[in-house]
Amino acid sequence: MSESDFEVPAGIDVLRVFLGPDGRHGNALGVVRDGRAHQDPASRQALAARLGFGETVFVDDPERGHVDIYTPGLRLPFAGHPLVGAAWLLDLEVLELPVGEVFARQDGEFTWITARPEWAAPHTLERYGSAAEIEALTGPPPGDGRLYAWAWEDEAAGRVRARAFPRRDDTVVEDEATGAAALLLSAELGRALNITQGRGSQLLTAPAPDGTVEVGGRVSLAAVRARR
Q1: What pLDDT sits at residue 4?
Q2: Residue 203 exposure: Cα atoms within 13 Å on the Cβ side
Q3: Percent with pLDDT over 70 in the chain
Q4: Long-range contacts: 143-149, Cβ < 8 Å, 24+?
Q5: Structural fold of domain 3-98+219-227
Q6: Which pLDDT score, from 0 to 100, does residue 133 have?
Q7: Which domain of life is it from (predicted)?
């Protein structure tokens, strides 16, 4: 089924986060504007599984920026692309999460969040010899845990080619754009990065002296039809 034919329940916005420079690609995100309609964790988990996006955000307080994040198989205390998307959609400067406050800002066509690397779920950051090796991957290599496969496209310019494989027990085989992994890689390398991930999504990062990392990208509403 094409994206334009995809049906979602009314009251859910579908975004694409970390679009490429041409406005294509990006990672799909569901945003439930009124989290009160799904108050208990079981109801939220069931809806996230039914939608099948990499993550779904439930907005519990749009003014304070209190949000709750679920993948199809588990709840997350922090994730990058849901927070970039929610900050853009709700025009928020602060998002409240169990790990702490995440600050957000708009800069032209980019939305940025600031977070700490220790908030992100652990990823294996595996460096490959070339961007061509990354593109040649046909699926997740054997192993457990989240894998972020990356290689330099242009080390001097901070340009990286990457792909992410959650390798977790839900429906997501490969993440098109993974803000948490980009944050971890930027922190490990200690430098700003311009990452091309998946089919052509773009993620920008900028580490700060206080140990935080900014992650930014473009966001747009996806063309979907609501089911009423």
Answers
A1: 42
A2: 35
A3: 92
A4: 143/167, 146/121, 146/122, 146/181, 147/123, 148/123, 148/124, 148/178, 148/181, 148/184, 148/185
A5: Diaminopimelate Epimerase; Chain A, domain 1 (3.10.310)
A6: 97
A7: Bacteria
Give the Å distances, CA to CA, from 180 to 14, 40, 77, 147, 215: 20, 26, 11, 12, 9
At 140, is the pLDDT very low, low, confident or very high (cuts 50, 70, 90)? confident
CATH for 119-216 (3.30.1360.200, 3.10.310.10, 3.40.800.20, 3.40.50.300): 3.10.310.10
Under a CB-based contact definition with an 8 Å cutoff, are residues 216 and 201 in contact?
A: no
pTM of the model: 0.91
Among 82, 92, 101, smallest CA distance to 219 is for: 82
Asked if pLDDT for residue 34 goes beyond 60, the answer is yes
Q: State pLDDT tens for residues 88-97.
A: 999 999 999 9
